[in-house]
């Protein structure tokens, strides 16, 4: 019988019935195995016994016990069991197999993401990174995103260096800050600052004018931010821009808070829009004519984040729908992030080729 000793006796068989008592002696050892690493697999002489912890009876003999996990250095223990032994095998935490990653992309301060999760900003060195394949993403506002597939190997450093490319929108900002004109705004706006302000405030620079929508692949990697739009309006005034209306100019002198001024301008723009289209629902949605004036998205931004007003997410979602066609399609890239954070991705779709 398994786990008991063998007991041999001589027995004489004759015509008389006879009872024979045989006592079996227990013949095993008790073994406990523990590993603190989560999901560590335990094997004894190659046979899987459990995960993390195992306890059982074994016959005397020599054994190899191993704790292992993918991506970690395994550990082994050699034991020899004798009759009635009670042995506990405790492994230490398995050490992760790692390498390192160095990212030296310019400009400094660009976000670095691994598999979609931000891990720091450039310049960056990540040590003791588990081996494996990763998608590296390097991004900064006004620059084209850089995607790189990297493979981290044991005790090796993967290096990525270079320079992010300015988007056309980014070039416009750089030129605006230097007081230079940019082709994107030529022929319609005398000031790049105002073009920037309109894009941030409404997601569009005066409808079809000012920006080449056909170049949306690398031009519009910025998000709707009406408060930032007000900031650029102030810069335009500071630079002596005469295209800023007298009304807005006077308000800037009275209201120093960008958030408050932004909310007031968005509210008034919405009222003006509704008055212009006489509350006709057919024109409350994005159309070629209405695209010249899109205050709904700006108000949606304010209400969703509670900036300059009381937070009201449901009201914000309702206004965001007004910035789209009746089919729930919009063509302004600046809306993408807001739609995503509102969890309206499945309802509202971005299509740069509506017209």
Topology:
Elements: E1 29-34, E2 41-44, E3 47-51, E4 53-58, E5 61-68, E6 75-81, E7 86-90, E8 98-103, E9 111-114, E10 117-121, E11 124-130, E12 132-139, E13 146-152, E14 157-160, H1 168-177, H2 192-202, H3 216-219, H4 226-238, H5 246-254, H6 258-276, H7 295-305, H8 313-322, E15 329-330, H9 336-341, E16 349-350
Parallel strand pairs: 1-7, 8-14, 15-16
Antiparallel strand pairs: 1-4, 2-3, 2-5, 5-6, 8-11, 9-10, 9-12, 12-13
Helix pairs in contact: 2-4, 4-6, 6-7, 7-8
Q: Quick one: biggest sheet?
A: 4 strands, antiparallel
The coarse overall form would be elongated
Query: Could you tell me the radius of gyration in angstroms?
Result: 35 Å
| Cα-to-Cα separation, first versus last residue | 84 Å
- Coarse structural class: alpha+beta
User: What's the total number of strands?
Assistant: 16
| Helix and strand element order | EEEEEEEEEEEEEEHHHHHHHHEHE
Helix content bin: 25-40%
Number of helices: 9
Strand order, largest beta sheet? 3-2-5-6
The average pLDDT score comes to: 80
Strand content: 15-25%
Poorly predicted runs of 5 or more residues:
1-5, 183-190, 206-217, 282-293
Descriptive overview:
With 355 residues, this protein is of the alpha+beta class. It contains nine helices and 16 strands. It has helices at residues 168-177, 192-202, 216-219, 226-238, 246-254, 258-276, 295-305, 313-322, 336-341, and strands spanning 29-34, 41-44, 47-51, 53-58, 61-68, 75-81, 86-90, 98-103, 111-114, 117-121, 124-130, 132-139, 146-152, 157-160, 329-330, 349-350. A four-stranded antiparallel β-sheet has the order 3-2-5-6, with no helix packed on it. Strand 12 and strand 13 (146-152) form a beta hairpin. Helix 4 (226-238) packs across helix 6 (258-276), helix 6 (258-276) packs across helix 7 (295-305) and helix 7 runs antiparallel to helix 8 (313-322). The longest helix has 19 residues, at 258-276. The chain is elongated. The chain starts with 28 loop residues before the first strand and ends in a 5-residue tail after the last strand.
